[in-house]
Amino acid sequence: MKALLQRVSEAAVVVADDTVGAIDEGLLVLVGVEPADDESTARRMVERLLNYRVFADDAGRMNCSLRDTGGGLLLVSQFTLAADTRKGNRPGFSTAAEPAAAEALFSRMVSMARQAHQPVATGEFGAMMSVQLVNEGPVTFLLEV
């Protein structure tokens, strides 16, 4: 599982002119599910997202996590993160989980996140989404579990 997290002052996901998920300050996380991922992978990723220290403390150092700040978490499934880009000029997607398996695991991940933290918002699995964000810093990290 891969997660591209971005520290944001605000972020939203729009599908067909409707905002389906939005947060104020927090993390926008694009999630790529791979074939070997399972519930333990999702649980580990949720823990990392909630505890990853990317927010400034009083001294301006990245020492605070989402749990510390109480900020929002916007999770967006993005199969292209799992693409194989090692060669050629076109990505391959054999390294991404099948859509049904990815949707089930992503949904489980969202449930885990909601049990552990609030607020949690999402995009719409499989939809053409417009993701809007204001990246603060910019701060962007790729996490892999």
From TrEMBL:
Signal peptide: none annotated. One of its GO terms (molecular function) is tRNA binding. Keywords: Cytoplasm, Hydrolase, RNA-binding, tRNA-binding. Its EC number is 3.1.1.96, 3.1.1.-. One of its GO terms (biological process) is D-amino acid catabolic process. InterPro entries: Daa-tRNA_deacyls_DTD, DTD-like_sf. It catalyses: a D-aminoacyl-tRNA + H2O = a tRNA + a D-alpha-amino acid + H(+); glycyl-tRNA(Ala) + H2O = tRNA(Ala) + glycine + H(+). It comes from the Bacteria. It is found in: Cytoplasm. The keyword Signal does not apply. GO terms for cellular component: cytoplasm. A motif (Gly-cisPro motif, important for rejection of L-amino acids) lies at residues 137-138. Belongs to the DTD family. Homodimer. An aminoacyl-tRNA editing enzyme that deacylates mischarged D-aminoacyl-tRNAs. Also deacylates mischarged glycyl-tRNA(Ala), protecting cells against glycine mischarging by AlaRS. Acts via tRNA-based rather than protein-based catalysis; rejects L-amino acids rather than detecting D-amino acids in the active site. By recycling D-aminoacyl-tRNA to D-amino acids and free tRNA molecules, this enzyme counteracts the toxicity associated with the formation of D-aminoacyl-tRNA entities in vivo and helps enforce protein L-homochirality. PANTHER family: D-AMINOACYL-TRNA DEACYLASE 1, D-TYROSYL-TRNA TYR DEACYLASE. NCBIfam families: D-aminoacyl-tRNA deacylase. A Gly-cisPro motif from one monomer fits into the active site of the other monomer to allow specific chiral rejection of L-amino acids. This is D-aminoacyl-tRNA deacylase. The gene is dtd.
